[in-house]
Amino acid sequence: MIRDYEEKRGFPRMQLDCPIEIVEPSGGQMHLGTARNLSADGALFHAPVAFAAGTVLTIQIVPEKTVVPPLRAEVEVVRVDQEPEGYLTAVALRRMLG
User: Which of 68, 69, 76 is nearest to 22 (CA)?
Assistant: First the structure.
């Protein structure tokens, strides 16, 4: 049986379109972006700046509905692709933050 690529993922991805705050802990700089998707082990977001692979960041995804609390996590950049007006950044979740 041939399986679609999306079905081969260990964890399904939930599509998002909500604000994300990205903080570079090393310098304390904060950037605003848009979260595109989220899974149990990673996330994808659009950002105005390019981060180098291996960079550790702190992210906070702010859902539109206040019923769900913001997600705060420490992540590591695994891939960056240039897009019009910014960069598509894939990150691996390292640990959840309180």
Answer: 76
CA distance 8 to 6: 5
Q: Report d(CA 68, CA 1) in Å as an integer.
A: 38
Superfamily of domain 8-96: predicted glycosyltransferase like domains (2.40.10.220)
Stated pTM of the model: 0.84
The structural domains of the chain, with segments of one domain joined by +, span: 8-96
Digits of tens for pLDDT over the chain (98 positions)? 454 555 555 667 888 899 999 999 888 899 999 999 999 899 999 999 999 999 999 999 988 777 778 899 999 999 999 998 999 999 999 999 97
Tokens of 50: 């390019």
